[in-house]
Amino acid sequence: MKKNRYLLCLLLAAFMLYFAVPRLSINLDNTQGIFSLTWLAFALVVIAGNLTGILYSPKKSMRKMQSGRVKKKSRSYH
């Protein structure tokens, strides 16, 4: 379920970059250029975070195995 959310966010971020990059002017002389570079940096952080979430999420079978374990109580006889 989380992988679907990560993939959706990744596609939305890529879609926004597709439309925004041609319209952004990267001039450091004015505030518009600083805003453009900051916006691009934040977009790349979002893409990197979602890719990390997709690539490093635990496998489903491992989660099922871990949740299926039953802890045995140890008995102590004093």
Order of helices and strands: HHH
Q: Give the overall silhouette.
A: elongated
Task: Report the end-to-end length measured between terminal Cα atoms.
Answer: 48 Å
The tally of strands reads 0
Q: Biggest sheet: strands, sense, closure?
A: none
Parts with pLDDT < 50 across at least 5 consecutive residues? none
**Helical/strand content category:** mainly alpha
How much helicity do the residues have? 55-70%
- As a percent range, the share of strand residues is under 5%
Number of helices: 3
Report on the architecture of this protein:
- The protein has 78 residues and is mainly α.
- It is 68% helix and 0% strand.
- It has a domain at 1-30.
- It has helices at 2-20, 31-55, 60-68.
- It is elongated, with a radius of gyration of 22 Å.
- The model has no long low-confidence stretch (mean pLDDT 83).
In short:
This protein has helices at 2-20, 31-55, 60-68. It is an all-alpha fold and 78 residues long.
List keywords for this structure.
78 residues, mainly alpha, 3 helices
SSE topology:
Elements: H1 2-20, H2 31-55, H3 60-68
